[in-house]
Amino acid sequence: MTDPGLVRRQFDGGGWRWEDITIISADAVVPQDLQGAWDPLGLSDAFFDLDLPKVDDFGDHLLIVLHGLRDDDVETYEVDCFVAKDRLLTVRSGRSLAIDALWTQMERTPGLVPDAPGEVAAALADLLTRRLLGVTDAFELQSEELIGRALSADPDLLGDIAAIRSDLANARRVLMPQREVLDQLRTVRTPLFDDHTRRRFADVFDVASRATQDLDSARSATSEVIEAYRGAEARKATEVNRVLTIYAAIMLPLTLIAGFFGMNHEGLPTIDEDRGWIVVLSVMIGVAALSLGVFVAVGWIRRPSARVAATTLGKGLIEAARTPIDAVLALRPVRGDRRRRGRANDRDEG
User: Fold this and answer.
1) d(CA 92, CA 120)
2) What is the residue-wise DSSP string for 168-219?
3) Residue 269 DSSP symbol
C-alpha cells in the first residue's frame, strides 16, 4: 500500500538503483520495504528528525546528512543519503533543485550515468554545497546598494542589515558541519567508495571551505557597512548642529542690539531721531553680514559635496564588501568526471 504522505520514484543505473523519497506530510511513516535494508535508527532520523550535516557508518552502508539552499528563500533543507554498494536512497522534505537537476541529467544522458551510488552521492554533495554559495552571491549583488544607503544614512538600513546577517548566520550554521562531513568523506576508508569518489568529495570540501571563507568575509563587510552608516549619521548630526550654531551665533549680536535699543530709558542714542531705526537696522545688517563673512572665511559654511564624500569613502568600503564569488549553480556534467578518470587510468597504465 502506497503512503499518501510520500512521493517515491526510482532510477535504474544498470548495476545499481537510486530511490528518491519526498516527504509531503507530517503523518508519513517509514515504508516497510526500507526497514530491512537500512539501519532503523538512521531511517528514523531521516523521516522524523532534523539533523545538522553528519556521516554515520553502519558497515554495509553509510548515512550522509547534507544541507542545501532552497531556490525561493535563504533557507536550508536537509537531504539524507543512504549509500550502499548497489543502492542509493535519498530522503528529503519538499523540493530539491539539486536532486531534480541531477536526476534529470541522468535520465537524459543514460550513457553518462555513474557506475556506483557513491559517485552520485558525491555529485549531489557538490551541487548542494555550491548552491549555498548563492547566499554570498546575493550579498554581492546588494553590496554596492547597501554602501550607497549607508553613506546616505538610510534609516531603514539597520533592519535590512540585521536580516542579511541572519541569513549569513543560517548558511554558516550548516556550512561548518557540512565541511567537516566532507573532510571525513574525502579520507574515509570504506569499500563503498573508490579513489575517484574520494577525490570528488575532496573537491567538494574545497568548495565548502571557500564558501565558509566567503560567508565570513560577507559578515565582516556588513560590519563595515554599519560603521559607514554610523559615520554618515554622525556627519548628518554634525551638519545640523553646525547650522544651528551658525544661526545662533548670527542671531546673538542682533538680539543684543535689539535688546539694547529696546530698553525704556531716556537718552539712548538715536532714540529721539525719526530715522534712528534705519541706523540701528543698518548696524544689525552689517553685523550679520560680517558674521557670515567670518564663518565663510574660517570654513564653517563651506563643505565638500556629497558626491565627493561618497566617492572618497566608497572606494575602500566597496572593496571590503566584495568577496570572491565562484558560484556555479548549473549541474556539472558527469562526462568531465569520466574524462578525468580516463586520464588517470592512462597515467597508471603508462
Assistant:
1) 16
2) HHHHHHHHHHHHHHHHHHTT---TT--HHHHHHHHHHHHHHHHHHHHHHHHH
3) T
Amino acid at 127: L
What global pTM score does this model have? 0.66
- Per-residue pLDDT tens over the stretch 115-129: 899 999 999 999 999
Question: 73 pLDDT exceeds 70?
Answer: no
| Rounded CA separation 241/247 (Å) | 10
> The domain 234-306 is classified under which CATH number: 1.20.58.340, 3.90.110.10, 2.60.120.510, 3.40.50.980?
1.20.58.340
| Mean pLDDT value across residues 93-106 | 90
Q: Which of 156, 124, 143, 302 lies closest to 223, judged by CA? A: 143
> Helices 195-261 and 334-349, interaxial angle, to 10°?
130
Residues in contact with 329: Cβ distance below 8 Å, sequence separation at least 6, in sequence order: 130, 131, 134
**Out of 28-42, 199-213, 247-261, 317-331, least confident range:** 317-331
Q: Give the cell for residue 82.
A: 543512504
Per residue in 212-221, pLDDT tens? 888 888 888 8
6-229+324-332: CATH number = 1.20.58.340
For CATH 1.20.58.340, the residue range(s) in the chain are 6-229+324-332, 234-306
Answer whether 109's CB lies under 8 Å from 334's CB.
yes
Whole-number Å distance between alpha carbons of 187 and 199: 9
